[in-house]
User: What shape does this take?
Amino acid sequence: MHDDELLGTHRQELRRGTVVLACLLALREPGYGYRLLKTLESAGIPSDGNTVYPLLRRLEDRGLLTSEWNTDESRPRKFYRTTKAGKELATQLLADVTDLTKSLRSLNGRS
Amino acid sequence: MTWTERYLTAVLRSIPPSKRDDVERELRSSIEDGIEERVGAGEDRTAAERAVLEGLGDPARLAWGYTGRPTYLIGPELFPIYRRFLARVLIAAVPISAAVIGGLEWVGSGTLQWAIGAALSGALGVAIQTTFWMTAFFVFLDWAGPARQARTEILAAAGHWTLERLPKVSVGRISVGETAGEIVAVLITLGILVFSTTLSTTSPYGTHIAFLADGFRTVWLPILLVLVAIRGVDYLRAYTAGRWTPWLTVYHSLVHVAFALLLVILALSGWIVNPVFGEQIGLPALADGQGPVMQILALGTLLATGWEILRIIFRARRTGDRAPQLGTSTQSI
Assistant: This one.
């Protein structure tokens, strides 16, 4: 029980920073909130609505995403798309994550 | 009203009006999406709605996510400054206000018990008020948009942490001079107590009238002498150990408190001085527990005890666990 809790806390810490990157990458294809949750889940990065929905707005406020209401379907949906600035940031962050993984692997291999 | 409507109302309450419509529309459609999927998988609609909304969690938290407001009172950047600042203000404000309030009450009512009560409740009030307003100020600093500039300036003024800001640690042991001073004080106290037994006056009938009350001299005075002597031994033990260990500090404080309480109770009960002695020398109020002399004695005892206990606690902190090693093994730094 205690170990599960510990693992959960650390996992959450580790993932906190990657949700932004995952959203920016996933939304190079326009998508709306709920579909994004499903996309992330099937990609192996499960997140909560209460994290992702507010996050989308904050990323939009910073100009990393743009949004557009689509009222063609039965239910109006707000579609988000990663901007140029968002894509650049995502590329940089992805390179950082890759480097970090490589560094951790080499640390792990050394001992 | 459905659960969804109630949930949306709860979220939107804390969202700025300009964004409210947009957030509502989007959140509603996200909730509908979630419910639809669960219903599609064969779940009952009511149960699906409950599961989706409970999955979104506390609406206040969700709203805070939208507004980007912090979910803490004082953030990690400001917290150390807040703590230091509060501690300094409390250390200065509480004793001073206790002394002032107690002093005023004493002048006003002339009763020591009331003065002590007023000082204690006054100090508590000042501590609570100071803590509250200081905390409120720092919360404002961390939260309010208009305070952002002030916050930046305070953080800049606090500046980079450098080694010079390390708290001062006494590198030496307790000095001989300090211990000698303490021992002399103990000997003087013992001397005064013993000398007071020899004081007397002569009645018109030629009999000796002792300064001290009989009961005090035979029962209480020996106890007081022992307690003072124990204090002297404590000083020597602290000197031998090189520092005030936690146990010695607690023990020493308890002995001090016992001495003070005993003396204060005896003074306020008027059991110390022989009443006949007072009348004989023309000071009938001398022995009276409600008279000025005994009250000053009681108050002086309390103040001196408080001061001594604080002094020992600060001394214990300065010569704490790390100090002896610092003084001996890493002298070169």
Observations:
- The radius of gyration of chain B is 33 Å.
- The CA atoms of residues 17 and 308 of chain B lie 60 Å apart.
- Residues 176-321 of chain B form one domain.
- Chain B has three domains: 3-67, 79-165, 176-321.
